[in-house]
Amino acid sequence: MDGATQYTIGYPGHEVLVKDIVRAENCDLYDPAGNRYVDLESGVWCTSIGHGHPRVLQAIAEQSARIVHTGFSYASRTVEEAAREILSLLGFENGRCVFLCSGSEAVEYGVRTAKAIIKRPLLMTMADSYLGAYGSASRKEADEWFCFDWAACATCPHEHECDERCQHWQAIPWDHIGGFVFEPGSSSGFVRFPPQKLIHSIVTTVKETDGLILVNEVTTGIGRTGTWFGYQHYDIAPHVVAMGKGIGNGYPVSVTAFAASVIERLGHEEVKYGQSHQNDPLGAAVARQVVRVIQEDGLIERGRRTGALLLAGLEGIKERTHSIKEIRARGLMLAIELHDDAETSFTAWSHRELARRGYLLDRRPHVNVLRLDPSLTIEQADIEGFLQTFEQVLTDSRRVEQRTHNL
Q1: Which of 248, 177, 161 is nearest to 214 (CA)?
Q2: Which of 131, 365, 371, 394 has a C-alpha 20 to 30 A away from that of 93?
């Protein structure tokens, strides 16, 4: 082991390609030798407005000089102000927020709140959704969750709404379902988008029996998919929204937001959850500043334009190289599935070669998928540079594969 990785534990299944980054600015990363890398995955999909954004750094410095952390018996107006601005994005008039530290916490807090309200025993989610690293949302045990496999729905030939005419719909135990937890597109990192018709039908059915709609926006929110939140592509109205990653731009803060109707139904019932950094004013100040930067700099629209440019470029590469099997994209959330097999490891070679040439993106562990989630602030020149380099890498890798095959 070298010194940079000897004493730390990394992400399971992910290969560390650059062992020491010493400086970061927007989407530029630098190693000790001054080599520049373009960060196309925004850290772990977190730096929504780029590394080291000056306004976020200023907010951290100013809030740190006032008060960082509060206690059980005292609070900070900063938290209330941040909550008000976030709730306005959702249209949650008279709603409530809780600020936490991670996306997993935000989802789990929403789940625990739902369980305190709903009368039926099961929450429903998609079989390929990732809802967190711990708690009920992580385990998805059969006595608490119904996980729906929507694979057949992706190519549904019927125009009518989902109903009892469909065998897959019939398999859903509606009498036991009290809520639906929707992850609108990440699909455990594979970037798959359930059909709008299906989601509309599920949401309508759940709401008909006073069930709750929860949305996991940890990955898809804060402008990532070309709108403030991924659920907005589905024209639905959730009761609970969990945010993380991009809301803190790299700072560990997350938010669970509740519509007023949830607070009313909760009444005097207490959600049995509390941790040391709940509603810290520093995290709230960061989240508030991230929201303001995105609003004031028009970054949602910029992200849509950049995403369209990136997708068009990748589609062109797909046509010219025949190395790409499928591209799945919405805004600046993209997955590139390559033609590969276990023997060639074409995807892993391409991932390493891109890093060697100065472009860092995510490779999904043990599968032939590369994922891109660049910051909303990425420069067009970096997108164009990546596209040119990626096409050259695919061309070079096929030459290497052909030479190896001929030996």
Answers
A1: 177
A2: 131
> What is the distance between the alpha carbons of residues 298 and 295, in angstroms, rounded to a whole number?
5
In contact, 131 and 137? CB cutoff 8 Å = yes
All residues at 6 or more sequence positions from 280 whose CB lies less than 8 Å from its CB, including other chains? 68, 69, 70, 79, 99, 253
- Give me the residue label for tokens 């068009």: 312
Do the Cβ atoms of 95 and 87 come closer than 8 Å?
yes
The CATH number that domain 23-52+298-406 falls under is 3.90.1150.10
- Give CB contacts under 8 A, 24+ apart, made by 84-88: 85/288, 85/291, 85/292, 86/243, 86/247, 86/255, 86/257, 86/287, 86/288, 86/291, 87/257
The overall pTM is greater than 0.85: yes
Query: What is the β-pairing status of strands 28-30 and 23-25?
Result: antiparallel
- How do beta strands 36-39 and 96-100 pair? unpaired
Residue spans of the domains in the chain: they are 23-52+298-406, 67-296
Which phi and psi (to 5°) does residue 295 adopt?
-65, -50
Q: How far apart are CA 197 and CA 283, in angstroms?
A: 37
Residues 6-50 pLDDT 10s: 788 888 888 899 999 999 999 999 999 999 999 999 999 999 999
Give CA–CA dist 105/256, Å, rounded.
Answer: 9
Angle among Cα 62, 68, 73 to the nearest 5 degrees reads 135
Pairwise CA distance, residues 379 & 65, whole Å: 33
What pLDDT digit, counting tens, does each position of 94-134 carry?
999 999 999 999 999 999 999 999 999 999 999 999 999 98
